[in-house]
Amino acid sequence: MSGRIRLILCVIACFIAAVGGVFIGRALLPSPVQPGAELHEVLHHKLALDADQQARLHVLEQRFAVQRRAFELELRADNARLAEAIEVEHGNGPRVVAAVDRSHAVMGELQKATLAHIFAMRQLLRPNQTGQFDQAVVKALTDDKR
């Protein structure tokens, strides 16, 4: 067998092994749970929201999705500024520090907006629904399985 054929067979075998490894890994390892997934499950499937609550929740979620996307874009821009500062300063200089501080400020604003969104959703709930919602919020904030 020529060296070229052996090389092609080796490449094919490596590709098949890599694809097989991905499939085995996905089957054996649990996929990470998205933060807030359980809270979403509670809100949409376990609290038996009435039609008015569902409509108001939909409006809140639409509004927050736009707000969250704006923060995410701002954070991406901050990361680009940080990368540029690192490239220029090659160390923890004043531009790097300023870029990190700006990024942290935006992260803080995102966290505040997220909490405001959670509290706004809670306001839609009847008293008999808030306990389960509160438990899901606490679990989302304290669960180590991320």
From TrEMBL:
It comes from the Bacteria. Pfam families: Metal_resist (PF13801). Keywords: Membrane, Transmembrane, Transmembrane helix. The chain crosses the membrane at residues 7-29. InterPro entries: Metal_resist. This is Periplasmic heavy metal sensor. It comes from Sphingomonas glacialis.
